[in-house]
Amino acid sequence: MSVDSELFGIHGKALALRSQRLSLLASNIANASTPGYKARDIDFESALKEASTQQGKSAADVSQAVDDSMGYRVPLQPSLDGNTVELSTEQTLFAENAVKYRTTLSFLEGRINTITRALKGE
């Protein structure tokens, strides 16, 4: 077990996964009017579970977990041009994930501040 895993637990990988998901959702939003574009997303819970069970702590572990848990979104209302992006759904998921990203980041910042104060002897 590495030092960062002991200090930050699962939150470091959760932050990396949330970042990857933000990029994926932003790509979906950017391609909302691209004919034939298929909206993708990750199953965050399964990706986090997979990333947390891997022994290493590298970015490759997180990327592998994202790849393994990625799938295509099934639209509620199919479009005629084959695009499966539903803008309102993507925007909602993006905003929700952004809030969770910030929450995880705040937790990690608090943990780092606590460690820094302890090292300074405060």
Q: H/E order of the elements?
A: HHEHHEH
Number of strands: 2
Percent range for helical residues? Answer: 55-70%
Helices, by number, come to: 5
Radius of gyration: 17 Å
As residue ranges, the low-confidence spans are none
Mean of the pLDDT scores?
88
Instruction: Label the overall shape.
Output: elongated
User: Strand arrangement, largest sheet?
Assistant: 1-2
What is this structure, in a nutshell?
This protein is mainly alpha-helical and 122 residues long. It has helices at 3-8, 11-30, 44-53, 59-69, 87-120, and strands at 40-42, 70-72.
Descriptive notes:
- The protein has one domain (3-120).
- It contains 5 helices and 2 strands; from the N terminus they run ααβααβα.
- α2 packs antiparallel against α3 (44-53), α2 (11-30) crosses α4 (59-69) and α3 (44-53) packs antiparallel against α4.
- With 122 residues, it is mainly alpha-helical.
